[in-house]
Amino acid sequence: MIDKKLDSAVKEIEDLFEVNDEFLLKATDEFINSMNNGLSHLSSTRQYMPMIPTFVTSIPTGKEKGLYLAGDLGGTNFRVCSVDLKGDHTYDLKQSKFEVPKDLMKGSTSDALFSYLASKVKDFLKEHHSDYDSDERLKLGFTFSFPVNQTALNKGTLIRWTKGFDIPDCVDKDIIELFQSHIDLLESKVEVVALANDTVGTLLSRAYTNNDEESNAHTIVGSIFGTGTNGAYFEQLDNIPKLRSLDVPKGSTGMVINTEWGSFDNELKVLPRTKYDDLIDSETFNKGYHLFEKRVSGMFLGELLRVTLLDLFDKGLLFTDLYKARGGSLPHRLAEQWQLNSEVLSYLEIDDSTDLKMSQLVLENHLRLPTSKQERIVIQRLTRAISKRAAYLSAIPLAAIVKRVKPQYENDNKDLEFGCDGSVVEFYPGFQQNILKAIDIINPLKGTNKKIHLRIAKDGSGVGAALCASTSK
Ligand code: BGC
């Protein structure tokens, strides 16, 4: 049994995190509005999503061929890959992964960061392709998972950093130029020919591996639910008014758009808002931006749990004995920001052991936090409330894009599928099921017999970047 006062305080927080059907429908409509605004305006503001043109004008068929390199700077790691596209929906991949040193992620310089990235490309080539002796430079597609103002396949300036990166002198600089100059300094035979967001890569790689004759489904979205969240889809040129003033490759009928949906509803017209969300936003570098991401993605789920627990502690309802026993302190991983990883929440979420003994172990191991049974029950309830809200919110952009592209597929009877990547969607228990439940509520395919599928897209950013590179002339 839980103490009555604690129980009602927890209930109050659970209610704050509840989202209802009516909200899901309203938010989906608002998402479509925000897409339209972003597609009409070249300059990006807080009011609508950036909807960035990527200059990728076709979706792979699975027949693409050749050897390409890919670099991938995501949230925490830098990966270098070589991808041999076989032309039959398959590929061979070699890759190396490096954890980006924390001191390069913030407070450093763009030169320091890009010289590190270029050195890793060089190391990779030495290890895996020392026999490459053609005079032609290998083409590299660069997956750079931050908002970029892209003006050509190989041109784009950083709009702002997200996900804990903060290197001010990099903002407004051309990312490809920076990377290429450091690659040249190290005399590697590599040409950076394409800049791609990770979601664009995910869309392309899933479309390449998807044999739609077998799956009976078209890949319509590439999405990431990991440290951050975002999605890309293919839009008809007629629906992208802002492209009219830019150079669009001749003969194209549409273009992949990187929505940057992390920035959906920065004005909080429809999104749920709790004091915990406000607190977390105030702790971040990109305050006031990416407010959707701050409710959904892995970087923030643990932090949301941490601040709700601290609130209950402040009210004298949780960890009071522990605090006294420690002589007036809480374990630092609970007391300090960003110390609670979403992976920990995934264990708490599904614990069905007697007295939640598994959670006890996990909390001790990961947070050095001893707990009573009552405290573990509370922690599990809050974890589930936070993750369910995140998954339900994740359904909004996916359903909105289905509504949006539905007419493109009016004349065939294939299903529609999302290619998804990222630790949260791949590993968080129940996350995919909850997304699908919420999509069912929104029911974007009403009036058709088609179904929606969610597929995990492997190697999205590596293979996708290679595919982007393959489209460069
Ligand atoms: C970035 C996006 C990226 C997403 C997933 C967000 O924070 O703004 O560009 O696609 O994270 O990695």
TrEMBL record:
Residues 10-208 form the Hexokinase N-terminal domain. One of its GO terms (cellular component) is cytosol. The keyword ATP-binding applies. InterPro entries: ATPase_NBD (IPR043129), Hexokinase (IPR001312), Hexokinase_BS (IPR019807), Hexokinase_C (IPR022673), Hexokinase_N (IPR022672). The keyword Transferase applies. Its EC number is 2.7.1.-. SUPFAM superfamilies: Actin-like ATPase domain. PROSITE patterns: HEXOKINASE_1, HEXOKINASE_2. Residues 221-470 form the Hexokinase C-terminal domain. Gene3D superfamilies: 3.30.420.40, 3.40.367.20. GO terms for biological process: glucose metabolic process; glycolytic process; intracellular glucose homeostasis. It is an enzyme of class 2 (transferase). Pathway: Carbohydrate degradation; glycolysis; D-glyceraldehyde 3-phosphate and glycerone phosphate from D-glucose: step 1/4. GO terms for molecular function: ATP binding; D-glucose binding; fructokinase activity; glucokinase activity. It comes from the Eukaryota. Keywords: ATP-binding, Glycolysis, Kinase, Nucleotide-binding, Transferase. Belongs to the hexokinase family. This is Phosphotransferase. It comes from Pichia sorbitophila (strain ATCC MYA-4447 / BCRC 22081 / CBS 7064 / NBRC 10061 / NRRL Y-12695) (Hybrid yeast).
